Structures are given as structure tokens and as C-alpha cells.
Amino acid sequence: MNCRTISRRILAVALYLVIVATAVAQPASPVRALMEESGLVRQSAGSDEGFRQMVVGTAKEAGLLADEYLEPLADISQRALETERYLDDLEAALIEILTEKQIASIREFYASPLGKRALQAEIAGSTSEVVDEINATGEKLRAEAERDSARTALMRRMDEQFHFSEASADWFAMADLVVAEAALLSVSPGDPAEGLAAARRMVELQREDRVETFRDQTTASFTRIYRDLSTSDLADYVEFLEAGPAAEFYAAYYAADLRIMDQRIEEIRERFAEYVRQKKA
Known about the structure:
Elements: H1 3-19, H2 30-37, H3 40-44, H4 47-62, H5 67-80, H6 83-97, H7 100-110, H8 113-124, H9 128-136, H10 138-147, H11 149-162, H12 164-187, H13 193-225, H14 231-242, H15 244-280
């Protein structure tokens, strides 16, 4: 896959992983309220449809899966990643990890003037107009970032605390693995253990290179999204993100996300294998 294709697809993931605006009127728990106020509910909106598109795009680019299996795999993948179910699982995982003190500290920040400005910038940055602008001016945004090393360094630190580039690479790795496993299962729906293990190793080897590619694109995207925040505001935002409660929250979120993704990969594999078995019967 060339860099231009990767850049276009990164922005599609960014739309789902960082900022799409939806609302939960009555949060069921302090953790769900925190997820809403910190943007995690917003960033998950449409992720099931987004993953479906990633699976379809990956399958078409790889050319590994027969056309007759493409839509069934996409349907199974989208159902497995159903957004509200994902959020429920994430909430349950975070309830087990976060303390009341951590939750209160993070909610207090996102209710502050700076926290509100940061979220407003992220919501504004999710509009189709801004996403199209980022797609069209990526090179210009990267050049802008290079001219201001101080802001760029802050945005890199933000990326690290959000685990954004890592999560983007993980989602693409998940799509790659789902397609590779489906290609094997479409031929042998039993348990081609060696082939599945080899597919996972191949995807893991590609992940690190992708993380670095995503870091460059994320910096360009953040340059546009946070343009109206002063360097002082960005520094204060990073200070909050690197402080104990916020750092622990985002680390817990990322770890929970990885666990949920592993569960969903297994679910997709099992459901697709059953589909193939029924089709071949």
C-alpha cells in the first residue's frame, strides 16, 4: 500500500477514533459520564461502519478473498464491532480499573475552560469540511508543523498519551488480520492453526512501520485541529494528559481497547468459519 493511500485511510480512521460528535443524554455511571465528557463516546461513533469499510478496502487491495465472501465478512465484522456494545464493554472494563478520585479529577478538567476549548477544537475538526481540508493539504500541514518545532513536540506528546497512532495502527492490523484469516478459512473452515499463526506474525511485523507513518499524519492532522489553541494552551493540555489520573485513564482505555479487539477478532473468525461451513455444506 502506498503512502498516499495510507494517508487517505488514516484520516478516515481519525474521524472515528478522535472526534465524531454524538451525545448520551443520561450517562448510566460516573465512568460513562467520563467517557462522554472526555470525547471517548464521540470518537467511537460510527466505528462499526468505519471498520466495515476498512475490511472491504483491505480485502480489495489484498486480493486474497473471493468476491462471494466479501460482503458476508463485512457484515460479520460490522456486527462484531457494533458501537453501543463496544462502549458497554469499554465501560465495564474501565469501571474495574478507575477509582472515584481519578474519575473526578479528569471530569473536572474537561469541565474547565481549557478542557471545553480542547473538545470544541476536536469537534470542529471532525466536520467533513475540515477532514477534506486535511486530506487536500496534508503536505502543507506537515510543512507548517516542521516550522514550529515547539508545537510539533507538544502534539507528538499528545499523540503518545492518547495512544492515537498506535490505536490507528492496531485498527488497520485488525482489518488485515480479519481479511487474512478469512482468506484461509474460506478455503479450509476447520482450524488452519499454522496458517492463522503465520498471518498474525505477518500483521505484527507490519504494525511498527505503520505506527511511524501514522505519527507523521497525526501531527499534520493535529496541526489543523488544534490551530486555534495557543501554544500555552497546548502545553497545559499536554501537562494534564501526562499527569497521573489522565495518563492512567488513557492507558487503561488503550489496554481495554486492545482486549476488546482481540475478543472481536476471535468472534469474527468463529462466525465467518461457521458461515463458510454452512455455505459449503
